[in-house]
C-alpha cells in the first residue's frame, strides 16, 4: 500500500481520525491520535515528517535533555480500527531520531528493519519468513494486589478444571477440560468457539490471513489462533495487531485475555512457537531433497547458530521472570538447548509435515513465549 492508497482509505472510509502506533522495548504498544484532515492537507509532506513526541516518557529511551523524537508512519500498514466509535485509520510507525534522520537505535521496528537488511547483505538469502504462533489464555476475571501487608491473586474461569465444584447461578454443567485435557475438544467442553471466531473475523477484516483456531492444552480457556507466515517486519506488525484484536474482543465479551507465559503453576503455559525459513528468490535455502529430513546444510547451520547462542537469544525471546516458570520438565516446553525431528520437547524442532515439499521445509524454535517483543524476538532469531 502506497501513500496514495493510504490516503484513499482515509477518504473513502470518511475517517475522522488517524491513529499512530509504535512499540517500546518491552513490546508494549503506544499511540497518538490526530484528526484525519491533518494528513489530507498535504499527505506527502505529512508521511515524510510524521508526528513529534516526547521520547523521554518511554521507558529506557531518551533522557529529558534530548527527548525530541519523531514517528514516521508506514503507509503499507494502514487499516481501519474495528473497535473505535469514530472511524479511525491506524498506521504503524517507525521511530526516527531527529538528530540524524535515521531509525532510532532502540526502536524495535527499526531494529527489525536492520535485521532484514543484514540478511540481504550476508549473501545467504534475501528473504526470511516467519510464522509465530502466540498462545494465550482468556479468563472471566483476574484480581491481584500487592500491598505492604498482603499480596494475593485470583483467576476466575468457568472453564478451569478447578471450577467443577463451584455453585454457578444455581447450577454447574460439569463440561470442562481436565488439567492437561484442553487440546482441541469440541463444545460444550470448548466454550471459546464463538469468541475465537469473532477474533478471527476481525483479523481477516484487517488483512491478517488465519489458517486455524482451536482450544489449547491448558485448562481455563487456553487458545491459539494460527495465522499465515510473512516477512520479518510485517509478521511482527501482524503479531502486535493480533494481540490488540485478541485483547479487545475478549474485553467486549466481558473477559480478559493474557499472553503471560505461565499464569498457573501446574498447568500448561503459553508459548510462541516460531517457524522460520530463508529464501533466495523462489528457492528455499533450507531445502535439499538429497539431505536427511530434506534439511540443507544452510538449514543445519541455522539450527547450530540458534543453539550456540541459546542463552543470549533467550534473554530476548523469554524476557520476563515468569517466562522461565513455563520451561519445566514434564511439559511440552523445551528444557535443553537441543534439536530434534518432530520432537516438541526440543528447543528447535524440524517439522515432518509435508517433508518432501521444498516450500515447506523450515525449522521451528519452541522456546519463545507470547509475552516477548515480536520485533526483537524475530530479529534476534534471524
Please tell me what the overall shape is: globular
What kind of sheet is the major sheet? Answer: 10 strands, mixed
User: Which structural class fits the helix and strand makeup?
Assistant: alpha+beta
**Rg estimate, integer Å:** 22 Å
End-to-end distance, in Å? 26 Å
Strand count: 19
**Poorly predicted runs of 5 or more residues:** none
| Helix and strand element order | HEEHHEEEEEHEEEHEEEHEEEHHHEEEH
Tally of contiguous helical segments: 10
Q: Helical amount among residues, as a percent range? A: 25-40%
Rounded mean pLDDT is 94
Quaternary structure type: single chain
How much strand content do the residues show? 25-35%
Structure description:
The chain is an alpha+beta fold. It is 27% helix and 26% strand. It contains ten helices and 19 strands. It has helices at 3-12, 36-41, 43-49, 108-122, 193-205, 232-252, 297-308, 310-317, 323-326, 374-381; strands at 17-23, 29-35, 51-54, 68-73, 79-80, 88-97, 102-103, 127-139, 141-146, 151-156, 210-215, 222-227, 230-231, 256-258, 272-280, 283-284, 339-341, 348-350, 363-365. The strands form three sheets. Strands 8, 11, 12, 13, 14, 15, 16, 17, 18 and 19 form a ten-stranded mixed beta sheet that branches. The radius of gyration is 22 Å and the shape is globular.
Amino acid at each position: 500500500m502506497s501513500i496514495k492508497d493510504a490516503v484513499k482509505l482515509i477518504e473513502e472510509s470518511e475517517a475522522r481520525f488517524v491513529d499512530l502506533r509504535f512499540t517500546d522495548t518491552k513490546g508494549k504498544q503506544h499511540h497518538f491520535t490526530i484528526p484525519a484532515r491533518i494528513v489530507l492537507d498535504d499527505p506527502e509532506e505529512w508521511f515524510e515528517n510524521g508526528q513529534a513526541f516526547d521520547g523521554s516518557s518511554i521507558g529506557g529511551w531518551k533522557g529529558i535533555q534530548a527527548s525530541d523524537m519523531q514517528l514516521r508512519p508506514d503507509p503499507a500498514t494502514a487499516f481501519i480500527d474495528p473497535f473505535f466509535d469514530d472511524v479511525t485509520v491506524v498506521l504503524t510507525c517507525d521511530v526516527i531520531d531527529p538528530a540524524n534522520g535515521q531509525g532510532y537505535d532502540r526502536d524495535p521496528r527499526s531494529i527489525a528493519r536492520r535485521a532484514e537488511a543484514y540478511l540481504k547483505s550476508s549473501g545467504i538469502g534475501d528473504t526470511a519468513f516467519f510464522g509465530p504462533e502466540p498462545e494465550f489464555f482468556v479468563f472471566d476475571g483476574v484480581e491481584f494486589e500487592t500491598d505492604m501487608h498482603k499480596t494475593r491473586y485470583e483467576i476466575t474461569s468457568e472453564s478451569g478444571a478447578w471450577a467443577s465444584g463451584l455453585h454457578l447461578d444455581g447450577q454447574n454443567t460439569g463440561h470442562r477440560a481436565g488439567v492437561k485435557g484442553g487440546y482441541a475438544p469440541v463444545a460444550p467442553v470448548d466454550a471459546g468457539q464463538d469468541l475465537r471466531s469473532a477474533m478471527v473475523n476481525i483479523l481477516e477484516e484487517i488483512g491478517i490471513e488465519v489458517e486455524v483456531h482451536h482450544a489449547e492444552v491448558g485448562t481455563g480457556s487456553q487458545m491459539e489462533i494460527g495465522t499465515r507466515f510473512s516477512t520479518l517486519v510485517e509478521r511482527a506488525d501482524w503479531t502486535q495487531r493480533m494481540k490488540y484484536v485478541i485483547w479487545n474482543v475478549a474485553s467486549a465479551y466481558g473477559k480478559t485475555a493474557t499472553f503471560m507465559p505461565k499464569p498457573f503453576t501446574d498447568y500448561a503455559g503459553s508459548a510462541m512457537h516460531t517457524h522460520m525459513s530463508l529464501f533466495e528468490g523462489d528457492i528455499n535455502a533450507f531445502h535439499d531433497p538429497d539431505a536427511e529430513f530434506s534439511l540443507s546444510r544452510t538449514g543445519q547451520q541455522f539450527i547450530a547458530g540458534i543453539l550456540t547462542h541459546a542463552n543470549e537469544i533467550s534473554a530476548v525471546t523469554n524476557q520476563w521472570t515468569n517466562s522461565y516458570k513455563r520451561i519445566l520438565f514434564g511439559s511440552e516446553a523445551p528444557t535443553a538447548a537441543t534439536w530434534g525431528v518432530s520432537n516438541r520437547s526440543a528447543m528447535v524442532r524440524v517439522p515432518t509435515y509435508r517433508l518432501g515439499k521444498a516450500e515447506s521445509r523450515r525449522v521451528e524454535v519452541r522456546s519463545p513465549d507470547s509475552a516477548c517483543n515480536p520485533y526483537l524476538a524475530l530479529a534476534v532469531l534471524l
